[in-house]
Design brief:
Number of helices: 3
Radius of gyration: 15 Å
Shape: globular
Order of helices and strands: HEEHEH
Distance between the termini: 58 Å
Helix content: 25-40%
Largest sheet: 3 strands, mixed
Structural class: alpha+beta
Strand content: 15-25%
Length: 110
């Protein structure tokens, strides 16, 4: 008897996306891009194509290309994700209030 491969739910894949985003760091900041609040939108379509809107802590961030490419490569490594589009946006402008409580503690803002 052949075992059918069960497609994971969109929610399960979205959770993997968030887990993977938490492995991406700005080389100058010891907090991941997700907890920093740099991820503005995660849009996983029904066909498992993924679009992510993200920003940077500063528009002239010297590590911008590295960070965006790291996000793209890590998200593309998720088995169920068909394709990845990473959009770099600067509206709304990022500020420290967008960080998680853990990130604020880590960086000494609390």
């Amino acid at each position: 008897m052949e075992v059918e491969k069960v497609q994971p739910s969109k929610l399960a894949v979205e959770e993997k996306v968030i887990e993977m985003l938490k492995t991406v760091y700005d080389p100058e900041i010891p907090v991941n891009v997700y907890d920093l609040g740099l991820i503005y939108k995660i849009d996983l379509a029904d066909d498992f194509s993924l679009a992510v809107d993200m920003t940077l802590t500063a528009p002239n961030c010297p590590a911008a290309d590295f960070i965006v490419e790291d996000v793209r490569q890590k998200l593309e490594s998720i088995e169920q994700v068909r394709c990845v589009e990473v959009n770099l946006v600067f509206e709304p402008e990022w500020n420290k209030d967008m960080m998680t409580e853990e990130a604020k503690v880590e960086l000494g803002f609390l």
